[in-house]
Amino acid sequence: MKFPPIQTLHFTLRDETIPLCDLLKGVGIATSGGEGKAIVAAGRVTVDDQPELRKTAKIRGGQKIKLPGICILTHAAGEQA
């Protein structure tokens, strides 16, 4: 069984945390914060392999966010990607 390739994106935070919906906008998955919230509300997002339904969940450096076909690796401010 073949799986579609997963696109890996890297995101370096400017502050200690970023709301999940804003992260989705920041990496270009969503065109707005509202669209990011809708993606999360639809149940399409996991954080560290756990389903996440909180639209403004605080994401920190070192966490792994997944959507179908996409993996986002976050890095703390000042950390090299």
Q: Which word captures the global form? A: globular
- Portion of residues in helices? 10-25%
> Secondary-structure element sequence?
EEHHEEEEE
Low-confidence stretches: none
Helix count equals 2
Give me a quick take on this structure.
The chain has two helices and seven strands.
Question: Would you write up a description of this structure?
Answer:
The protein has 81 residues and is α+β, with helices and mostly antiparallel strands. The protein is 20% helix and 32% strand. The strands form two sheets. Strands 1-7-6-3-4 form a five-stranded mixed β-sheet, with no helix packed on it. Strand 3 (46-47) and strand 4 form a beta hairpin. The chain is globular, with a radius of gyration of 12 Å. 19% of the residues are buried.
Which features would summarize this protein structure in a list?
81 residues; alpha+beta; 32% strand; globular
